[in-house]
Amino acid sequence: MLLSVTNLNKSYGSKHVLKDVSFEVKSGRTLGLLGRNGHGKSTTMKIIMGIIYSNSGEVTVDGVPIEKSGLKLGYLPEERGLYQKIKVIDQMIYFGKLRGLTSTQAKTKATDFLEKLEMTEYTQQKANTLSKGNQQKIQLAIAMLNEPDIIILDEPYSGLDPVNSRLLQNIIEESAAQNKTILFSSHQLNTVEEFCRDICIINHGEVLLNGNLRDIKNTYPKNKLLIVPETGKETQLVQIAKTLKDEGYCENYKNTEQGLIVTIKDEGTKNTILNKILSQTEINSFSIVEPALLEIFLEKVGETAE
Amino acid sequence: MKNIKHVISFEYMSIVKTKSFIIVLALMMIVAVGASFLPVIIGFFGNVFGGNGEQNGDITADNQVVDIAPGSQIAVIDRTSLFTNDLLLQYMPDGSFVNYTEQDVNFITQAVEEGHYIAGLYFVTPLSFMVIFQNTLAGPQALAWVNQMVVTEYRNQLLAEHNLTQSMLDFIVQLEEVSAQPIFVPVGGLGFAVGYIVNFLIFFPLVFGGSIIAMAVINEKTSKTVELIFTSAKPSVIIVGKVIAATLVIFTQIIAVAGSALLGLRLTNNYLLQLLSPEILAELATPITYLYVGVFFVLAFFTFSFMFAAFAATVRDVQESSSATLIPTMIMLGGFYTGLAISMNTGWLNPLLIDIFSFAPFTSPFAMTIRITAFFVPTHQILLAIGVNVIYTVAVAFLSIKIYKKNIMAYGQKNSFFSLLKAKILKKA
């Protein structure tokens, strides 16, 4: 199954908020939709969900318009909102029924999810008595109640503590393993990097970068080396790096907690550098550093900002 | 469409299970029961402070002989058995009346219309209902006579049977002299009373229902719940579900309050109970009249509820709720006062204007309900008005859904009503 977003355009008055946005997500894969605040991520998600309409473009699943695909969709909106004065279980059953479950099925599913999310004690409580994080978990459960084929999560991690973040991550991974199509936005780029195979960066309503994260990273030059010195040899290693820079073997170096990161001029010089270092000091490890998603993001977004 | 059922059920339960709803309803029921004791209390104080002088048949009939043109006759249908032939003869010694008992109001209407009689008198219940039809041949004397006769005879009977004071009787039966009009002129006081009551019976449920829907929409919007709902049901399903749920809530309130009032009347053995007996209700109006009133009420409820929902969708926060509901409330008030004017009309309101109000949007449900309950309205007019109101309701619903859909997700901006009208309401949101 292939979810295709093709040339979406959306304007609010004279403000063009989406400009030919296109990307694809395959089933069983998780796509991280990235971008700065207010640059079109949520609008894109709402259009996919059919909450708002685009001015042009289409959203299809295997070539069929998504609304006619018959697939079940699950959505966690960016704007958190539950019926504040209604009991948790009652609103879960309500949303379950709206999504085609029978009353009994909805109740069973809701109870299962509350158990999975470690929230059974809140079953009979009204939403306004729950913390923000717990309300978010309830909304996540509502989004997943009908076992959707396509799951769209807008900032699912915001407001969650590390334990709950892990819980959410498990649910997402479990869904991906069940061949669901998952699309989520987040500003926690390390999390996205950890378990998204595909990314799409939107800036000012335009897609800046889109594709498989590994492929994207491979397009970047492997010009950073992480060298971890033996204990007590840190200062010596910095001195060697300074000499290498003075001699023109490397562009720059930076001492970090992980070790010394040396930026080389071209990939061909890395063996020379390594030999020079090994001839003067002892090191624990040596590895090529890939660009982090954060760096890629900042670089891309920075480019357009300039 | 299955989702509408779920929306209705959820919305209904989420309203009736709230503490505020239960408390308000309980208070209304207490007031309804308490109001039944009011006449008892008034009677008590009336006796204590010397109101006895006007009681119990002290007043004798001051018969006034009617001067009717030779050959002119008045048709009388008396279901009350109050006006015997002897009594009528006292007022019309030359026997210029024809007393029918088996005929109905349509007979007398037609007979007067066709000039067989100069006037028709239709007495249905002793206390509650009387209709006078007259044509241009009848002078003001006929009506004066009727007033005289009815007031005197009713008063005597009521005072005797119900142990009422004169002031209480005056409050209940305000028969006034009516100037001569073409045909179908109701007794002013009674028409006004009926119209006034019907007007309020329509207006208050509409206001309550409207505010229920407005608050539901505003809460959903400001709490951002609407995004979650939109992924589960279409906006049209949500709004229609809310309107039906509010209708059911209002009917729940009406049944509870009416039940309480009945209980109160029974507890106090109130004379008003007589009016609510099935026999008298059947005499007051035919079942089809009640059906017509119900249809107009439901159509009005739907029309205004959709309007409230649409305007509520334009707010940015809860503080703006009163300003959002102001416009539909004002429109509704326009209808209310139109209805009031029609109920008070004793001839000064241009018949063409009444017709316009009867078919114009937003005034039609008020005008027609009052005309049906207090006056005679030809069936074809009623059916036409129902048809027109169905069209209005559908149009308002369609427009409201568009406005709702366009605005419910717009958190930061508020569209004015006029900008909504001229903007892309009919286009995709």
List keywords for this structure.
heterodimer; A: 306 residues; alpha/beta; 6-stranded mixed β-sheet; 4-stranded antiparallel β-sheet; 10 helices; 14 strands; 37% helix; elongated; B: 429 residues; mainly alpha; 5-stranded mixed β-sheet; 17 helices; 65% helix
Structure overview:
The complex is a heterodimer of chains A (306) and B (429). Chain A has 306 residues and is α/β, with parallel strands linked by helices. Chain A is built from 10 helices and 14 strands. Chain A has helices spanning 41-49, 88-98, 103-116, 132-144, 162-177, 189-195, 213-218, 234-246, 270-280, 293-305, and strands at 2-12, 15-26, 30-35, 56-61, 64-65, 73-76, 150-154, 181-185, 198-203, 206-212, 224-229, 250-255, 260-264, 283-288. In chain A, the strands form 3 sheets. Chain A has a 6-stranded mixed beta sheet, with helices on both faces. Chain A has a 4-stranded antiparallel beta sheet with strand order 2-1-4-5, covered by helices on one side. In chain A, a hairpin with a 4-residue loop joins strand 12 and strand 13. The radius of gyration of chain A is 24 Å and the shape is elongated. Chain A starts with a strand and ends with a helix. Chain B has 429 residues and is mostly helical. Chain B is built from 17 helices and 5 strands. Chain B has a 5-stranded mixed beta sheet, with helices on both faces. In chain B, strand 1, helix 4 (85-91) and strand 2 (97-100) form a beta-alpha-beta unit. Chain B is elongated. The two termini of chain B are 22 Å apart. In chain B, 39% of the residues are buried.
Helical content band of chain B: 55-70%
Rg of chain A over CA atoms, rounded to whole Å, is 24 Å
Return the string of H and E elements of chain B: HHHEHEHEEHHEHHHHHHHHHH
**β-sheet strand percentage of chain B:** 5-15%
* H and E string of chain A: EEEHEEEHHHEHEHEEHEHEEHEH
Structural class of chain A: alpha/beta
Give me the count of strands of chain A.
Answer: 14
Q: Give average pLDDT of chain B, whole number.
A: 73
Radius of gyration of chain B: 25 Å
Q: How many beta-strand elements of chain B?
A: 5
Backbone structural class of chain B: mainly alpha
Distance between the termini of chain A: 38 Å
- Poorly predicted runs of chain A are none
Shape of chain B: elongated
Strand order of the largest sheet of chain B: 2-1-3-4-5
Query: What coarse outline of chain A follows from CA principal-axis ratios?
Result: elongated
Question: What are the segments of chain B in which pLDDT stays under 50 over at least 5 consecutive residues?
Answer: 49-64, 173-191
Number of helical elements of chain B: 17
